[in-house]
Write a structure and sequence with these properties.
The complex is a heterodimer of chains A (about 475) and B (about 60). Chain A is α/β, with parallel strands linked by helices and about 475 residues long. Chain A has a single domain (about 10-450), classed as Amidase signature (AS) domain (Amidase signature (AS) enzymes, Alpha-Beta Complex). Chain A has 14 helices and 13 strands. In chain A, helix 5 runs parallel beside helix 6 (about 180-190) and helix 9 (about 300-325) packs antiparallel against helix 11. Chain A is globular. The relative contact order of chain A is 0.14. The mean pLDDT of chain A is about 95. With about 60 residues, chain B is mainly alpha-helical. Chain B is elongated. The chains are: A alpha/beta (about 475), B mainly alpha (about 60). The interface between A and B is large, with 50 and 33 residues.
C-alpha cells in the first residue's frame, strides 16, 4: 500500500478511484494515525471509527460495482465539534452542551462532503463555544501544535488545525467568526478557506455570533480546499444567512495563474503591531507575486473594535440563559467575557452595526481597483501554551483577544480569504489572501500560484 | 469609567439581567467591561450620517 500519512486528499482520492488502495485501507490507516499521534496532539474529542469503516466498505462496494465514487473518494475528514454529527451531542467545546440529546442528523456540510466520497472519522477539539483564539480548552485540554507541542494550535478551531497539520486527516472543517479558521491555519502551517459570508450553509452547527459566523475547510494544499469548497457549495434555506447563488466551482480555475490580477498589500493598520516573522511572511508572499503596491483599508482598527463589540454582545445574548443557570460550568475565561458582553448598552451595539455598513461600502469600493489584498493572518507565529501577554508595537498586550487583530477587520464584512502557510523557521506563519465577495475562486488561484512556485507550503512537522 | 463606577455598573446590570456573579469573578469581568467600553467608544466617536442603516444581518 502507498504511504498515506501526510498524503493530500486529492492524491488519496485518485488512488482509491484507480483501485490502487481501498477506502477501508485508507480509513484504517487514518484511524491508526489518530490512535498513535492524537495521544500527543489532543485534536480529537471523538472518533467515529465504526461509522467510518462502514462507509468505507460501502464506497469500496460502489467502486467494485462500477458506480461513480466522487472527487473525494475515500478521503478521511473530521469536523470541529460544533458540527452536528448524528448520534453525538454537539458539545461546541463546552461542558454544558454534553447534556444535549444526540444530534438527529449530520450537518449539511458533512452530508455534502460524504456525497463527494469523503469519510467522516471524528469530531475535533475547539475553544469553548468558539470564543477563543488559542486552541486551549479547560474541559478537554488544549489541542497542541504539531510543529512544537509546547505551542498553541490557535483557535477556536484548534483541533482542526492540529489534526490536519499533524497528518491525522488531510481535510478538516471548522468555523470562523473572527479568525477561527485563519488563526489555526497560521499557527499550524496549513491552508484554510473562510468563504464569503452566506456561501456555505451553517445549518445544524452550533452558532456563536450569527452575523459573523462562517464555516469552511482546512487542508495541506490549495486543491483540497477547492475540491472540498466546491463539494459544499449550495443554497440552504435552513440557514437564514445562506445566499441563493448558482454554484461557482473554483477547482477548475486553479491553474489560471495570476495574470491580469491586481494585487496589493494592506498597509496602515496591517503594517503596525506585527512581529518580525509576520512581516517577513508578508514580504515573502508579496515578492513571490511581484507585488510592490500598498493599499490602505480605511478605518480597519475601528472595524476590529466594532467586530469585538458585536461579538461579545451577540455571544452574550446567545448564552444569557446558560449564564444565569449554569455559570459554574463555563470555562471562566469564556464566562467572564460573555457576562461583560451582556452589560454593554444596545446604543453602542447598534452604532457598531451602522459603522459596519459604512465600512463595507468603503472596502467594496477598493475592490474596483484591486482584485486581491494580502495581509498578515496573525501578528506572530504560535505563542507558548498558557502565554498571557505579548509585545506589539512596544506595548504589552493580552494574547488571547489580540491574536485576531488582522483577521477581525476582514471577516467583519464577510470577505472570502484563503490563509496560506509561509514555512518560516522555527515556526510557520500565515498570510491572508483576501478577495472581493463571492470571488473565492480568485483567492484560491493566488494560493495555488504561491504553492506552485514553492513560496507557500504546509511543512511536515517532526512527528513520528 | 473609574473602578467604583464600573463595579456599580456591573452589579446593577447583573441584578437587572438576573445574572448571578461572584466576587471572585469581578476583576476579570471588570477588565472585560473596560476593554469593551473602550473599543465601543472608538466606534461611537466616529461620525456617521443620520441616514446610515445598521447591518444586523450582513450580506457580503
Amino acid at each position: 500500500m502507498p504511504v498515506l500519512s501526510f498524503a493530500k486528499g486529492h492524491e488519496i482520492a485518485a488512488l482509491v478511484a484507480r483501485g490502487e488502495v481501498t477506502a477501508r485501507e485508507v480509513v484504517e490507516d487514518a484511524l491508526s494515525a489518530i490512535r498513535k499521534r492524537d495521544q500527543t496532539l489532543n485534536a480529537f474529542t471523538g472518533v467515529t471509527a465504526e461509522r467510518a469503516l462502514k462507509r468505507a466498505d460501502a464506497l469500496d462496494a460502489d467502486r467494485a460495482a462500477g458506480k461513480p465514487v466522487g472527487p473525494l473518494a475515500g478521503v478521511p475528514f473530521a469536523v470541529k465539534n460544533l458540527f452536528d454529527v448524528q448520534g453525538i451531542p454537539t458539545r461546541a467545546g463546552s461542558k454544558i452542551n454534553r447534556d444535549l440529546p444526540p444530534a438527529q442528523q449530520d450537518s449539511p456540510l458533512i452530508e455534502k462532503m460524504e456525497a463527494a466520497g469523503a469519510i467522516l472519522v471524528g469530531a475535533l477539539n475547539m475553544g469553548e463555544y468558539a470564543y477563543d483564539f488559542t486552541g486551549e480548552n479547560v474541559h478537554d485540554g488544549p489541542s497542541l501544535n504539531p510543529h512544537d507541542v509546547t505551542r498553541m494550535s490557535g483557535g477556536s478551531s484548534g483541533g482542526s488545525g492540529a489534526a490536519v497539520a499533524g497528518g491525522l486527516v488531510p481535510i478538516a472543517l471548522g468555523s470562523d467568526t473572527n479568525g477561527s479558521i485563519r488563526v489555526p491555519s497560521s499557527f499550524c502551517g496549513i491552508f484554510g478557506l473562510k468563504p464569503t459570508y452566506g456561501r456555505l450553509s451553517r445549518a445544524r452547527s452550533f452558532p456563536f455570533v450569527d452575523s459573523l459566523d462562517h464555516l469552511g475547510p482546512f487542508a495541506r494544499c490549495t486543491r483540497d480546499l477547492a475540491i472540498s469548497y466546491d463539494a459544499m457549495q449550495g443554497y440552504d434555506p435552513a440557514d437564514a444567512a445562506s445566499v441563493n447563488r448558482p454554484l461557482e466551482p473554483a477547482e477548475p480555475q486553479l491553474g489560471r495563474g495570476i495574470d491580469g490580477l491586481r494585487i496589493a498589500v494592506a498597509g496602515g493598520y496591517f503594517r503596525k503591531g506585527a512581529l518580525p516573522e509576520a512581516r517577513q511572511a508578508i514580504e515573502h508572499a508579496a515578492k513571490a507575486l511581484y507585488v510592490s503596491r500598498e493599499i490602505e483599508i480605511p478605518e480597519a482598527q475601528r472595524a476590529r473594535a466594532a467586530a469585538y463589540v458585536i461579538t461579545t454582545t451577540e455571544g452574550a445574548t446567545l448564552h444569557l440563559d446558560r449564564l444565569r443557570m449554569r455559570a459554574h460550568d463555563f470555562d471562566p475565561a469564556t464566562r467572564d467575557r460573555l457576562i461583560a458582553g451582556a452589560m454593554i448598552p444596545s446604543s453602542l451595539v447598534v452604532k457598531a452595526q451602522k459603522f459596519r455598513r459604512w465600512y463595507r461600502e468603503q472596502v467594496l469600493a477598493l475592490f474596483k481597483d484591486v482584485d486581491v489584498i494580502l495581509a498578515p493572518a496573525t501578528p506572530c507565529a504560535a505563542p507558548a501554551i498558557g502565554q498571557q501577554t505579548f509585545v506589539l508595537d512596544g506595548v504589552e498586550m493580552p494574547v488571547r483577544p489580540n491574536i485576531g487583530i488582522y483577521t477581525q477587520p476582514v471577516s467583519f464584512i464577510g470577505l472570502p480569504v484563503v490563509a496560506v502557510p509561509v514555512p518560516l523557521k522555527p515556526l510557520p506563519v500565515g498570510v491572508q489572501v483576501i478577495a472581493a465577495p463571492w470571488r473565492e475562486d480568485i483567492a484560491l488561484r493566488v494560493a495555488q500560484y504561491l504553492e506552485d512556485t514553492g513560496a507557500v507550503v504546509a511543512p511536515q512537522p517532526p512527528l513520528s | 469609567m473609574s473602578e467604583d463606577l464600573t463595579d456599580t455598573w456591573i452589579t446593577s446590570s447583573a441584578a437587572m439581567l438576573g445574572l448571578p456573579i461572584e466576587t471572585a469573578w469581578m476583576p476579570a469581568i471588570r477588565a472585560n467591561v473596560e476593554v469593551t467600553f473602550r473599543l465601543a467608544k472608538l466606534v461611537d466617536e466616529f461620525p456617521l450620517p443620520d441616514e446610515s442603516e445598521p447591518a444586523p444581518v450582513f450580506e457580503a
